[in-house]
Amino acid sequence: MRYLESVVTLKLDAEKCIGCGRCAEVCPHRVFAVTDRKAVMVDRGACMECGACQKNCPVEAIAVNAGVGCAYALIRSRISGKEACCG
Predict the structure, then answer these.
(1) 19, 34, 58, 59: least CB-packed within 10 angstroms?
(2) 87 lies in some domain
(3) How do strand 38-41 and strand 62-63 relate by DSSP bridges?
(4) Are 26 and 70 spatial neighbours (Cβ–Cβ below 8 Å)?
């Protein structure tokens, strides 16, 4: 599933990253991979801004405004019963 391209708030500070791989383990859409002992975003546009990567990063190398963007739109549409604007 693709979300709204180029609006994701996800950011990765590669200098802070220690390559633990937790982001890749917890991301439900496989946005991250670990290459050369560092996390890399392999599909940033697939991010649904759930915040799991940020919450599990032990060195705070990841920032995302959870609930912003498509994830928020999907939740709102579910609550309101109206069609989501992405998906």
Answers:
(1) 58
(2) no
(3) unpaired
(4) no
pLDDT value at residue 67: 65
Q: Tell me what pLDDT residue 72 has.
A: 64
Q: Domain with 28 in it: what CATH number?
A: 3.30.70.20
* Total domains, the chain: 1
Residue 6 placed within a domain: no
Closest CA to 57 of 83, 36, 78, 34: 34
Q: What distance separates the 2 farthest-apart alpha carbons in the chain?
A: 45
Show Cβ contacts of residue 61 under 8 Å, excluding neighbours closer than 6 positions. Answer: 12, 13, 14, 15, 16, 17, 18, 39
Q: Which domain holds residue 74?
A: 11-80
Confidence (pLDDT) at 68: 62
